[in-house]
TrEMBL record:
Record keywords, A-Z: Hydrolase, Signal
Keyword Signal: yes
Family: Belongs to the glycosyl hydrolase 3 family.
A GO term, aspect molecular function: alpha-L-arabinofuranosidase activity
Alphabetical list of Pfam families matching this protein: Fn3-like, Glyco_hydro_3, Glyco_hydro_3_C, PA14
Entry keyword NAD: no
Signal peptide: 1-24
InterPro entries according to UniProt: BXL (IPR044993), Fn3-like (IPR026891), GH (IPR017853), Glyco_hydro_3_C (IPR002772), Glyco_hydro_3_C_sf (IPR036881), Glyco_hydro_3_N (IPR001764), Glyco_hydro_3_N_sf (IPR036962), Ig-like_fold (IPR013783)
Family annotation (Gene3D superfamilies): Glycoside hydrolase family 3 C-terminal domain, Glycoside hydrolase, family 3, N-terminal domain, Immunoglobulins, Toxin - Anthrax Protective Antigen,domain 1
Lineage: Bacteria, Pseudomonadati, Pseudomonadota, Alphaproteobacteria, Caulobacterales
Organism this protein belongs to: Asticcacaulis taihuensis
Transmembrane domains' residue ranges: none
A GO BP annotation: xylan catabolic process
Listed name of the protein: Beta-glucosidase
Amino acid sequence: MPRLLLTSAAPFVLALILAQPVHAATPEACASAPCAFLDKSLTPEVRAKDLVSRMTLEEKAAQMQDNAPAISRLGLKRYGWWNEVLHGVARAGDATVYPQAIGLAATWDTALMGRIGDAIATEGRASHNAALMRDPSGTDRYFGVNYWSPNINIFRDPRWGRGQETYGEDPFLTGHMAVSFIHGIQGDNPLLYKGVATPKHFAVHSGPEPLRHGFNVDASPFDLEDTYLPAFRSAIVDGKADSLMCAYNAIDGYPACESPLLQNRLRDDWGFKGFIVTDCDSIDDMVTGHKKYADAASASAAAIKAGADLDCGTTYKAIPEAVTRGLITQADLDVSLERLMAARIRMGLIDGSAYDQIPASEINSSAHRALALKTAEESMVLLSNRGNTLPLKGTEKIAVIGPNAQLLQSLEGNYTGVPVNPSYPLDALKTAFSAANVSYAAGAPLTEGMRTPVPTTFLKTSAGSSENGLKGEYFDNLTFAGTPKMTRTDPVINFDFYRTAPEGFKPLGFSIRWTGVITPPAPGKYQIGFRMQTPRPGQPAPDVKVWIDGKLVVTPELSAAAGRDEAYCGGACAKPPMAPVAYEFTDTKPHDIRIDYVRTVEDRASSLDWIAPVPPLIDGAVEAAKQSDTVVAFVGLSPDLEGEEMAVSFPGFKGGDRTSLALPEAQQKMLEAVKATGKKLVVVYMTGGAISDPWVSENADAVLQAWYAGEAGGEAIANTLTGKNNPGGRLPYTIYRDVADLPSFEDYSMKGRTYRYFKGLVLYPFGHGLSYTNFTYDKPTLSAKTLKAGDAAKASVTVRNSGKVDGDEVVQLYLAKPGDTANPVLAGFTRVSLKAGEGRTVSLPLDARALSQVGQDGSRKVLPGEYTVSLGGGQPGFAATVSAELTVTRTAVLPK
């Protein structure tokens, strides 16, 4: 069959293909009499009802858990419902890795979000199809075609470690980006979804991470309607997402997965017809965390009655017991099961579909790689640019420093697939300026006491070599037998082999021997380790050995004796990785090193790590700075510091969240030391959450927010620093001056939070972002100067690129509403690309919901009075804007 590309750009081709019959074997149960669930002329709901009616109670219980077993007599294959595509297909091996979700939001580009969603759904199908080719009996976790993304919780507090997974702090921006992403994932055919999107976590959920399994939020009716629910309403009503995930925490005393909101708001008010999945083990939390129910049967019955159809976990194993005890009926179960089976029919998992022909070659295709680069470039936010330091000149000598210049994890972010040939900032800048003009020193670690991959500058293939890195001999067996299938130099030993392998090798079927020398920056006490996750029960033990000068210094046994290291779990591993082992270097001479690594365990990182003395590392950064005209410092965080419920307890970090917004002290000292050399300093933040560092703002010559930029991150950053890409991203959150300016993290009231309700001084405002060109705005016009409440209007404005280089502008519309307690709020936006000197008129709609505001009782109304419509490249008061006045008459009450 010829290669098949299914994209939104060719709907007529798709329609022709889908019209062709897809033949499948008749299930055993339907051999003697036709089964209605196989009749394609019936609706998915009618077919699902027939299918469920043929299941036993035990089968029903099993199908309501995320690892749904096969029912061969009905033709149902095994199906793993758990799959993640936050910013690319995650945890299934190789994939196109786009910028982390917060970076996607920084593009402020809804059309781009739709393209990304469509590309992800294509790769998801390709991954699913490949899994079925490997095992036709069904698919396991991470290989389905329904996806537990996007995360549309509001990033209400910058301390939340999972804020990186969201689209920022504003409900309007979040809702619009989510709708485009969902449309891209699901496609336009309601009878055949390319994938099923699952907005999460419904509804009031944004930390603290260590408390999430038992935390209750008494959200006010105002905050619920004004902040926490609008993006979910957009995702369901406008995006038509066919699934939704309920959260861990409780809301007004109800665990979220049995909240009355699931029925009252989601189904009754918004008309949601799809299925609800629980966050993983949240039904068990109703017993062990919230302690509301005595046992699994009681909790399961309550959740199912509330509308939680699918359990991510095993608590629903107690369903038969719940039925026997009279806590729930089979008719109650059937309601949930019919939703789940209708979804499987709509995904083409019962009949098959033309999507089954999408080949594995679509995974990280050239088109998707190009899209990842474009997205990373669009996400770049230029925070400051004193004296037009940027773009850098091609003749400059550059010192690249900082822990994120060559760190895989800070390209990936969390919930990630494995990037193919990731682009590191260090390598990209060497390409841009030539290696001879770039000096490099990693400098400080992310934070003192944290293990980090041994930087390439301290590794060489041999004592007399000028080549940095270690010699890697790759064997296609687990015993280092025979001649290596591949030999190469690996600059740094830090890899993500999760569910994949080096090209030409099989996952869990290879071994690597690295040899060379390691040269410490100073004598002293170090800790040497190899980052490998200790296995889950029943898995084989990790197999790695490290020798220095012929002495065996690291093995799983030696690491176990050294203690526990829980810094890297990220909520995703049952046991912490192997701990580093104490080791003392008595000199700064090259020391032979050998690593024997056998790939026997599916872990997410495999790296030669150390904890080294910080002062000599900073000295190295200073020496590199002295050889340069400009220092480019890649600093910030990593998903090993901020993320989902992980055992991290460094200063400023707790359990995945942050207790400080400042740059970690070790990095701060490094920047102060290189600044003292007098060289120009460009700071590139690679983070999910914000770094609030007034010293950097005051002392750096330029600051670029680059996020966790995905597989093309290095190239996108280099293109931006050199001017090949003119930055046009905008902040999707406020960068405050200090954490002390914020209310308690545990307080879910929105008073004093986000640009809408914060009244103090900020470091950088929501919507901020600079360009290498300038934009001007003409006076705006409104389609009507007076409007009856409930009616819609349109605001139009001409924006011009008045500078000398091409660039993108994000036209932002803010509304000041009569009597509103909020600052002017975002009510429209669009991203436009303008040639130098080009002008364009853009129009933004103002519908009743955008014009409305929420009362303390939670009612939403459009009120009479005078409205100010402001348009520009940022918030009024922070950016130059133009405005027009709109008068609204009467009052209109809007539905929930």
